[in-house]
Amino acid sequence: MKMFSYKASFLLLVILVLTSFVYSEAQQCRPSGRIKGKKAPQGQCNKENDSDCCKNGKMYTTYECSPSVSSHTKAYLTLNSFQKGGDGGGPSECDNKYHSDDTPVVALSTGWFNNKSRCLNNITITANGRSVVAMVVDECDSTMGCDEDHDYQPPCQNNIVDASKAVWKALNVPHEQWGGLDITWSQNA
Ligand SMILES: *[C@@H]1O[C@H](CO)[C@@H](O)[C@H](O)[C@H]1NC(C)=O
Ligand SMILES: *[C@@H]1O[C@H](CO)[C@@H](O)[C@H](O)[C@H]1NC(C)=O
Ligand SMILES: *[C@@H]1O[C@H](CO)[C@@H](O)[C@H](O)[C@H]1NC(C)=O
């Protein structure tokens, strides 16, 4: 009897450990693959405002998912121009339009963009003791990059809110620090 209860509790422990493992597995966002960087042809890859260009031979991790969304999702804010001729490339995926640097608009990593489901929704971005409302107009592609379509820029990380100048301005971030900032965001009702 004693032996049995020992075995039973051991079994229970194993089941518990396995269950929590499977559960955390489901919660986690793992890379979907890797792509090899190609050097941009002459004159390609707009280096405007420190945009990153793929390095020849360097491996870049890709993601189809992003960390789960909450009322204060942690993210990394980057700078992008959604204007014509800006470093964002073509018009925005959500509305096929360009957007002035003076309007607060963002692109979200592929997982958060979630197959256009957040298109033209507004999110509240909080950092630096301030908040700004910005509209989702584009995807920051975490699944592909280093090709002509992506201006020879690497795939996006999976936790990116890529924002226009107006967002940086509204957050009152000193100009020298524009380009990279830890933020939280939430989706507006
Ligand atoms: C990028 O840099 C150029 C030149 O310094 C500047 O004129 C432009 O406004 C910048 N774009 C953004 C989105 O900050
Ligand atoms: C994305 O949305 C389109 C159009 O609604 C649909 O056809 C497609 O299957 C969706 N893709 C994924 C990965 O959910
Ligand atoms: C998001 O905000 C913009 C600008 O205030 C507004 O025009 C738009 O209707 C809002 N979108 C939604 C889905 O509420």
Task: Explain how this protein is built.
This is Ripening-related protein 1. Its main location: secreted. Keywords: Secreted, Signal. InterPro entries: Kiwellin-like, RlpA-like_sf. It holds the Pfam family KWL1. This protein has 189 residues and is of the alpha+beta class. The chain folds into two domains: 1-30; 34-187, Barwin-like endoglucanases. Helices cover 19% and strands 25% of the residues. It has a six-stranded mixed β-barrel with strand order 3-7-4-6-5-8. The protein has a two-stranded antiparallel ribbon with strand order 1-2. The protein is globular and about 70 Å long. The N and C termini lie far apart (58 Å). The relative contact order is 0.21. The structure holds 2-acetamido-2-deoxy-beta-D-glucopyranose (3 copies).
